[in-house]
Amino acid sequence: MMRLLVLALVMIGQACWAAGPENSKRPVQRGGNVYPVAMAVGSAVAPTARHEKLLLDNGLSSSMRPLFRPARVEKNARQKKRLLRKGAVCGDLAIQGEEIGRVKAQLKGCGVERAVRVRSVSGVRLSQTSVMDCRTAGALKRWLDRTAKPALSRKGGGLTGLKVAAHYACRTRNNKKGAKISEHGKGRAIDISAFRLRNGSEITVLHGWNNRGTKKALRKMHRGACGPFKTVLGPQADRYHRDHFHFDTAIYRGGNYCR
Asked: How far apart (Å, rounded) are the C-alpha atoms in residues 150 and 143?
């Protein structure tokens, strides 16, 4: 009886041992001698052209380290910025001058609430510091940048200065008795009689308007002022403007007046 019991236990153990590998998590040992094989580098490993393009597009091919700048260059740049900031008016570094605040009226209708005295605009120096409001200073800058400087870029090395014939002055229009107050008396106007070039030469409105070598540039500057300024007068307007351009920023119901 004991022998039968032992035999039964042995047979049950063998059955459990035979079924074990089907449920085991342990990996089955391979038969025979198996050696590691070095696989060739395939296309899946090498970066694709699309991947390289993405890297370039995202800027990953270039160094993020800033370029080294000598201390002297940095110092000069800071000094220049301080000087510009010190002399800037109307919130624009390109308009250099000083704030003078309210200009009191000497005649009824004259005066400027928030006036500035401008000495240069976009690197172009005015022959005399000129009093005006910021809207007029901004219009002068736009005209210089868009029209005047490009028009004279090939003449005498380019534009460096404006000869100012008039700026703020509390007077009537064309100094006529009983006439309305001029826009000059409100800080909205500037008169320009000549343009100074880098080589030291000068183009005047009086002699250059019909001159073969300069009339094209002068007419372009006159025409281009109509937009930044609301009133533009020149040699063809009347006898009072034969020798200068009159620009002002007065707004009229009829729109711009340019002659």
From this structure: 10
- CA dist 14 and 17 (Å) reads 5
Closest to 205 measured CA to CA, from 246, 173, 176, 167: 246
The most distant pair of C-alpha atoms in the chain lies apart, rounded to whole Å, by: 149
The chain-wide mean pLDDT, for the chain, equals 83
Q: What is the pLDDT of residue 75?
A: 82
22 lies in a domain? Answer: no
Write the CB contacts of 129 (distance below 8 Å, at least 6 apart in sequence): 97, 117, 118, 119
Q: Are strands 231-233 and 257-258 parallel, antiparallel or unpaired?
A: parallel
Find the angle CA(76)-CA(81)-CA(83) to the nearest 5 degrees.
95
Minimal CA–CA distance to 221: which of 168, 117, 146?
146
Q: Is 247 helix (H, G, I), strand (E, B) or coil?
A: strand
Give the total number of structural domains in the chain: 1
**Domain membership flag for residue 55:** no
Q: Would you report the helix, strand and coil content of the chain in percent, each value rounded to 5? A: 35, 25, 40
List C-alpha distances in Å: 164 to 120, 124, 154, 213, 238.
11, 12, 22, 22, 19
Determine the Cα–Cα distance for residues 95 and 247; give it in Å rounded to an integer. 17
pLDDT tens digits for range 147-156: 999 999 999 9
Residue range(s) defining the domain that contains residue 192: 82-258
DSSP 111-164: -EEEEEEEEEETTEEEEEEEEEEHHHHHHHHHHIIIIIHHHTTTSTTSEEEEEE
Instruction: Give the residue ranges of the chain where pLDDT is below 70.
Output: 1-69, 80, 83
